[in-house]
Amino acid sequence: MSEDIVLEILLRLPVEDLLRLQTVCKAWSSIITQPRFIHMHLQRSASKNKKCLLMAPHIPDPIVEGEIWPSTFSNNISFYRWQQDDNDTASLLFAKDFRGDFTSVFRMLHRDGLVLFPTDTKVYVINPATRDVLVLPDGRRDILLPAYNNFQAVGFGLDHGNKRYKVARFFYRAVNLREQSCAMGMEVFTICGDGNDASWRETLEDPPYPIYEFRPPVYFNGSLFWIIGSHDIRCIPKGLLRFRLEDETFCVIPLPASSAFDDETIPNTGAR
Amino acid sequence: MEVDKGKGEAEETRKVAEADRDTVTLKSSDGKLFEVSKEAAARLSTVLAGMIAGGSIDDNGTDLKQIGSEALENVVDYCNKHANSIPSAALISSSISFNTAPFKEPEEWERKFVDRLSHDALFDLVEAANFLGMERLLDVTCHKISEMMKGKSPDQIREVFNIKNDYTKEELEEIRQELAWAFYDD
After folding, report:
1. SS3 content of chain B, % helix, strand, coil (to 5)
2. How far is CA B162 from the centre of its chain?
3. How confident is the model at residue A222 (pLDDT cuts 50, 70, 90)?
4. For residue B110, is it within any domain?
5. Mean pLDDT across the stretch A163-186?
6. Is A9's CB within 8 Å of B142's CB?
7. Around A140, how many Cα atoms within 13 Å sit in the side-chain half-sphere?
């Protein structure tokens, strides 16, 4: 049977079967693991399946009274899938005990079945369907972060050019509060799936303005959008900072001039 | 019962088609002749459409040396049944582009059409559909084969597909340990 036909057949199988069928022979394994196949499989299942919710409750354990941000998250992380037909019950997809690897979990981001899972120690990329857990290496130390619970200002999305997922991490190089100036940087980690190029790389261009680190970026059409702003530095334009994942460039999208958009009331960004 | 009905319909369509002379004659690798509606052939097969448009259709039987008579009979049967069924939105969209078109489930009659086939007949038909550029039939046959594969062990799959295991024991063990959960339901 020709490879074309085998590919067409394998495209129609769920992930669990594909993982097992890697052991049929080497030719099948190379079909199943090639990026082109993975991309086609994703497109097919996205158009076929009903939209589903992926839920990963993160629970403080124990609860500490009076904390603004919980610092004692449970290290038992479970991913549940819920579809409309599932009669009010979500099914457990994957659970993992991180055994004390972190204390704080920050807001997770989801894209095409992948979950970006930032914590106060490491940043993980998790694929609940294949149960793959990728631990990203440490990025550049952010000089401000320890004071903020080691918060990681990360986002991720698909680079339309090379069809790879990229994790982007914003960081401060230096902050001078007296002069109200700062220098910032962005670093990128490309998820290859084959273990190569496993390191952060700084972008050639630096971000022109700081972003609200605690508001996760929104991914839309190959770009990440952050809200420009800082709690410490003034004289910043109001608007969105767009970071194109393909060429790793920045541009500013101004918000409509209105007194309604002050620092505290900038609406949360969202994409459909 | 379904088999008889299918063949009967094919016979009947063949007679009607001959009277209209709006058919093409196809010749299998073992020299058997089959008539198929020109309209259906052109609509369902990019290869036959190209041959009809290019005038390379032989009135005495266009040679299809790669396709045996059993598979060709199924192809012709499928085309004729298709000509009789109402074209649906699924077919129109899937004929635009196979890989990017939204996935459409096979229709009831298509499901029955492939359900009655043996393993060998199904595998020959998928090859024929691929060779003739019949996207919809390829979709239906691949869907059926994938259904058969669900939940099967790699050993069972190798047997059905007649594939030689080219992994060493050590390599297999390594992959199995990595993906233990996919092999043994936990």
Report:
1. 60, 5, 30
2. 19
3. very high
4. yes
5. 89
6. yes
7. 20
Q: If residue B18 lies in a helix (H) or strand (E), which one and from where to where?
A: helix B2-20
| 3-state class (DSSP) for residue B86 | coil
Cα A181 to its chain centre, rounded Å, is: 29
Between positions 27 and 46 of A, the ones with CB within 8 A of B are 27-28, 40, 43-44
Query: Which tokens in the block code for residue B118?
Result: 């043996």
Q: Are A242 and A186 in contact (CB under 8 A)?
A: no
Residue B185 in any domain: the answer is no
Q: How far apart are CA A226 and CA A245, in angstroms?
A: 13
Integer CA distances (angstroms), A199 to A63, A140, A168, in order? 36, 11, 12
| Domain interval for residue B47 | 2-150
Q: Measuring CA to CA, which residue among A158, A157, A119, A159 is closest to residue A139?
A: A119
CA–CA min distance A192, chain B (Å): 18
Domains in chain B: how many in total? 1
Residue-wise pLDDT tens digits, B131-171: 999 999 999 999 999 999 988 999 999 999 999 999 999 99
CATH of the domain at B138: 3.30.710.10
| Cα dihedral across residues B91, B97, B101, B105: positive or negative | positive
Instruction: Quote the CA–CA distance of A246 and A159 in Å, as a whole number.
Output: 5
Q: Provide the shortest C-alpha distance from residue B93 to chain A (in Å).
A: 13
Single pTM value for the model = 0.73
DSSP character string of A112-141 = TTEEEEEBSS-EEEEETTTTEEEEPPP-PP
Residue found under tokens 């004659």: B25
Q: Is A262 exposed, middle or buried (0-12, 13-18, 19+ CB in 10 A)?
A: exposed
- CA dist., res. A212 & res. A266, Å (int): 11
Is B34 part of a structural domain of the chain? yes
Residues in chain B: 186
ipTM over 0.90: no
Please list every residue in chain B whose beta carbon sits closer than 8 Å to the beta carbon of residue A39: none
- Tokens 């919980």, residue located: A70
Q: Is A40 within 8 Å of B99 when comparing Cβ atoms?
A: yes
Mean of pLDDT over chain A: 84
Q: In whole angstroms, give the CA distance from residue B110 to residue B137.
A: 9
Residue B66 lies in a domain: yes
Residue A155, CB-side half-sphere exposure with 13 Å CA sphere = 27
A68 CB neighbour count, 10 Å cutoff: 6
